[in-house]
Amino acid sequence: MLSSVRRFFKFIHWLYLQYLLNTALYMLEPWERVLFTTLLFAIISTAVYSALVFLPVHVRSMIQTYS
Amino acid sequence: MNKSSSSSSSSNSKSKFISENVFKFQNHEEFEETPTWAAVVTVLGYAILSALGWLRDFLRHIGFEEKKTAYDPNPKDFVPLYQSYECFYTRNLYTRIRDVFNQPIASVAGAEVHVMERLSDDYNWTFKFSGKKIPSINLGSYNYLGFAENQGPCSEEAIKSIEKYGLTTCSTRHELGTQQYMKELESLMAEYLNVEDCIAFGMGFATNALNIPTLAGKGDLILSDKLNHVSLILGARLSGATIRTFDHNDVKDLELQLHDAIIHGQPRTCRPWKKILIIVEGVYSMEGSLCRLPEIIAIKKKYKAYLYVDEAHSIGAIGPRGRGVVDYWKVDPNDIDIHMGTFTKSFGSAGGYIAGKKTLIDHIRIYSHSACYSSSMSAPVVLQIISALNIIMGRDGTNNGQKRIQQLACNVRYFRRQLFDMGFIVYGNDNSPVVPVMIYMPAKIAAVNREMLKRGCAVVTVGFPATHLTESRVRFCLSAGHTKEMLDHALRAMDEVGHLVSLRYSKQNPHLRWHDLNRADYDKEYLSLN
């Protein structure tokens, strides 16, 4: 059981390393990583929030206009 | 390919039988296309780095952060000496991963090398040596035949020569600088290449840059490959001739350019060109590709142009007898007008040579800038080349030279085949000892180098100015000094690093781990001749 938990944490660490390498954050200083991740998180969370709040209303009005 | 381990008993005929099979002519060259997602992610990575670079530059400009680069201390009211003293790329991208480039070493750069460990407190602006030396397998030196060693017959000859000749002649070739060993070297090299005469210079780069101006001038046309080395480009520019480039290894494009050039003549006056010189390289060191010599020779004969082949990386390393691309393609050496090469790579020394017909070499002896102004070669350097040549040609009575050449060919095939089958994108010809493996993203350049060093392999990773922006790579240079255990260690390390950093981009081959490969196939193919 313990080895599968360890493997899971290793997998999460591997995923984090892929994120750092593909976005070139691997070569940046820690405060730059925090800055970029904060910005990315802010953009994604704004998009998700807007989708959750506005999509049902928009979809309902689209169905009403076209039916 | 025949598995020849069950062949005849006596060692002579065994090595002959092995050599026939080892050098069965398989000329396969491949450059797999960049996967689109990799190119997009690479460009995005550079965009993020540029944006953050601008932010840091702004912080440095307003004084929030201190300037760590060198700045131009020009006095007030003087015009600035440099536009931007250290450019944007160097400040913001190169310095962040500077610890993987220019690594100092602490031992002979043979098959194994000791890399000095450097630590940095302020993100690579300054370094401190920790004193620790990391022993690692050397996969970055151009030590193709394994002559870079500090023991053995070559280094003994070099030491004896210092006692006999001293270190320098303190003179140029035109003055009192032509020693006996220079004549011996030149006649030996001419015999090795099967041409009439040869001349040797002290520096390989200078051989190209300073001798192309003696061969071409104003009113001539130089057709050079797009991926030619900087020394050839510099020499061509210095000569004053018109330079046109053709696509890399593309014989149809070369023919089109030649055709157009001969029909239209010189640019403004439309007079015929005085001469046309085609410059190609034997092995291109960043791609690992070989030039298509028979087709280029056919074109050159048809359009009556001259051919200059730069065999810096291929002399000694390519071909069944180690005589370079001429030997590999089995063409007549008299068809190539100017053979050029260097002694730095396969012979473990320094310097360059130009070889060809006696009339050409006599002309170069008189008119070359390098022969006239640069100091002549030093005694231990030349004696190292002479003893290496004697070993390769078999003149010292053993078949050590032939064994080295075959060991290199086996190593190359073994290493390349496994990397290819594991799913990495490997560029170049199957027979070239230069193995570039693609890593497209900038952050992975640093990651691959550091992780390989942790696992005991010193590799060379190259990024932007030397290659395209989106095509960074790690370049392995194999050597006859590498044993099968070293190659296995390196492949295991590359397999782990490839998994950690996710370097397996190939779409043609399935992605396999090292233990998934069928070991028996590769071991049977690897003929151990020791």
Tag the structure with descriptive keywords.
heterodimer; A: 67 residues; mainly alpha; B: 530 residues; alpha/beta; Aspartate Aminotransferase, domain 1; Aspartate Aminotransferase, domain 2; 2 domains; 7-stranded mixed sheet; 3-stranded mixed sheet; disordered N terminus; Aminotransferase_I/II_large (chain B); serine C-palmitoyltransferase activity (chain B)
CATH level 1 class label of the largest domain in chain B:
Alpha Beta
Binned strand content of chain B: 5-15%
In CATH terms, the superfamily of the largest domain in chain B is: Type I PLP-dependent aspartate aminotransferase-like (Major domain)
Name the shape of chain A in a single word: elongated
**Can you count the beta strands of chain A?**
0
Shape of chain B: globular
Biggest interface, CB < 8 A: A-B, 15 and 20 residues
Task: Please give the domain count of chain A.
Answer: 1
Sheet with most strands of chain B: 7 strands, mixed
Q: Could you say which structural class the secondary elements and strand pairing of chain B correspond to?
A: alpha/beta
- The total of helices of chain B stands at 17
Q: Determine the fraction of residues in helical runs of chain B and give it as a percent range.
A: 40-55%
Describe the protein in words.
The complex is a heterodimer of chains A (67) and B (530). With 67 residues, chain A is mostly helical. Chain A is built from two helices and no strands. Chain A is elongated, with a radius of gyration of 19 Å. The longest helix of chain A has 37 residues, at 30-66. With 530 residues, chain B is α/β, with parallel strands linked by helices. Chain B has two domains: 35-138 and 401-529, Aspartate Aminotransferase, domain 1 (Alpha-Beta Complex), CATH 3.90.1150.10; 153-393, Type I PLP-dependent aspartate aminotransferase-like (Major domain) (Aspartate Aminotransferase, domain 2). Chain B is built from 17 helices and 15 strands. Chain B has helices at 11-22, 36-62, 88-94, 153-165, 180-193, 204-215, 230-239, 251-264, 293-303, 325-329, 358-367, 369-373, 379-393, 400-422, 442-454, 484-501, 519-525; strands at residues 29-30, 112-119, 128-138, 197-201, 221-225, 242-246, 276-281, 306-310, 338-342, 352-356, 428-429, 434-438, 457-458, 460-462, 473-477. In chain B, helix 2 (36-62) packs across helix 3 (88-94), helix 5 packs parallel to helix 13 and helix 15 crosses helix 16 (484-501). The radius of gyration of chain B is 25 Å and the shape is globular. Chain B starts with 10 loop residues before the first helix and ends in a 5-residue tail after the last helix.
